[in-house]
Amino acid sequence: MKIGPIGVWPPVVLAPMAGITNAPFRVLCREQGAGLFVCEMITTRALVERNPKTLRMIRFADSERPRSIQLYGVDPETVGRAVKMIAEEDLADHVDLNFGCPVPKVTRRGGGSALPYKRNLLRRILREAVRNAGPLPVTMKMRKGIDDEHLTYLDAGRIAVEEGVAAIALHARTAKQHYGGFADWPAIARLKEAVPEIPVLGNGDIWSADDALRMVAETGCDGVVVGRGCLGRPWLFRDLENAFNGDPERTRPTLGQVAEVMIRHAEGLVACFDTERYAVADFRKHVGWYLKGFPVGSDLRRALTTATSLEELRDGLGRLDHDQPWPPNTDTPRGKSGERDRVHLPEGWLEDPWDCVVPDDAESDISGG
């Protein structure tokens, strides 16, 4: 698969996930298998204003090539400035634009999955991004639409092609679905039929490497985007590489091998954040994902999810039964799920799908989940 000048094989992309896909996690995934690994979503205003936290979030490990940054923005001019900054200062090799985030703090500003409803605003943003990117490929990630009554993905796909976007990823859910229900894989097929000129990547309900193969076979998409399926399971990328290369082998680590990855992950976060207590606290959300399916006592789980230092974490991991085999039937949903009652939007957002008005306070000056 080609995304502009970048060759991607296997055709697999790590979805940007707030608070998850920082450099330590990306490095663990990249060690397992090849693909494209995207950093956490960055707000364009925070980047152009050189917010210290945002600049820390776009640090890449020396081993990371190509480097991919995902941007969130609502104002075309600010998006253009951010992309130009990335290109001119060699901050990344690829820029992805977020039009898929469903969380209220993003959609109520008109961003994320709310934005493609404003067709002309979307066009202006894409035009500014591509115009300022120089040689860097610009891609976009989106959802089907706001809800089933306000689907936008086919219109957005055609606009993207017309404005020079290099590839499109579709999370086959609406914003209202959030992460609930099932992804609508036939929508991915419809998008591929609508935009045959560029690669289309499918996203949603890929819990195993075989799910990825099935998505490609059923939809005709050019590649896949993996998000929640790799939580606590960076070795999924080894399985994905094997699967796309026709190798039936799948990774089934023992609990001891999982524990080794866990401590490496935590140590990487300490090096990234420079503060051990904060890094260990940040790691604790990963514990349940790593241990999913393994019979581990409640007291030991509690010790791991309340650890405040690497020493406490190592002590707890050392008490695990390291010979315990990989549990069966764990290629199942993980991470957040559930549908929302409604999508939070700016006042009057649905009245005119063609206007280009940027909502007040649309651009956030901070980045982070």
Describe the structure.
The model has no long low-confidence stretch (mean pLDDT 95). The protein starts with a strand and ends in a 51-residue tail after the last helix. The chain is globular, with a radius of gyration of 20 Å. It has helices at residues 23-32, 44-48, 52-57, 76-88, 104-107, 119-132, 153-162, 185-194, 209-219, 236-244, 255-273, 276-290, 298-305, 310-318; strands at 2-3, 6-7, 12-14, 36-43, 68-72, 94-99, 138-143, 145-147, 150-151, 167-171, 200-203, 223-226. Helix content is 39%, strand content 14%. By secondary structure, it is of the alpha/beta class.
Helices and strands in order:
Layout: E1 2-3, E2 6-7, E3 12-14, H1 23-32, E4 36-43, H2 44-48, H3 52-57, E5 68-72, H4 76-88, E6 94-99, H5 104-107, H6 119-132, E7 138-143, E8 145-147, E9 150-151, H7 153-162, E10 167-171, H8 185-194, E11 200-203, H9 209-219, E12 223-226, H10 236-244, H11 255-273, H12 276-290, H13 298-305, H14 310-318
Parallel strand pairs: 3-4, 3-12, 4-5, 5-6, 6-7, 7-10, 10-11, 11-12
Antiparallel strand pairs: 1-2, 8-9
Helix pairs in contact: 1-10, 1-11, 4-6, 6-7, 9-10, 11-12, 11-14, 13-14
